[in-house]
């Protein structure tokens, strides 16, 4: 079982930009991102709150279309940058 990191909304947006996603719009406290291959995701940026684990898991599996292992590897590369 893989342990997901605790990520703030703003940090997740920056990480997705590192993964070549681009911010397409912001409406209220939600940021919409799109990749060049058409994948879409919405990230809540509610002040300094963490993204809930279930939502993070949903973003990874369904929106990004990658496994948890791939996400953790990419995230560790991003944090080591």
Automatic annotation (TrEMBL):
InterPro entries: HicA_mRNA_interferase, HicA_sf. Coiled coil: none annotated. GO terms for molecular function: endonuclease activity; hydrolase activity; mRNA binding. Keywords: Endonuclease, Hydrolase, Nuclease, RNA-binding, Stress response, Toxin-antitoxin system. The keyword Glycoprotein does not apply. Signal peptide: none annotated. PANTHER family: ADDICTION MODULE TOXIN, HICA FAMILY, SSR1766 PROTEIN. This is Type II toxin-antitoxin system HicA family toxin. It comes from Candidatus Argoarchaeum ethanivorans. The lineage of its organism: Archaea, Methanobacteriati, Methanobacteriota, Stenosarchaea group, Methanomicrobia.
């Amino acid at each position: 079982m893989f342990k997901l990191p605790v990520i703030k909304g703003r940090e997740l947006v920056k990480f997705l930009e590192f993964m070549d996603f681009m911010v397409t719009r912001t409406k209220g406290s939600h940021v919409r991102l799109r990749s060049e291959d058409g994948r879409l995701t919405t990230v809540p940026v509610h002040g300094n709150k963490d993204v809930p684990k279930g939502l993070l898991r949903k973003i990874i599996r369904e929106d990004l279309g990658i496994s948890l292992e791939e996400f953790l590897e990419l995230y560790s590369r991003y944090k080591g940058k």
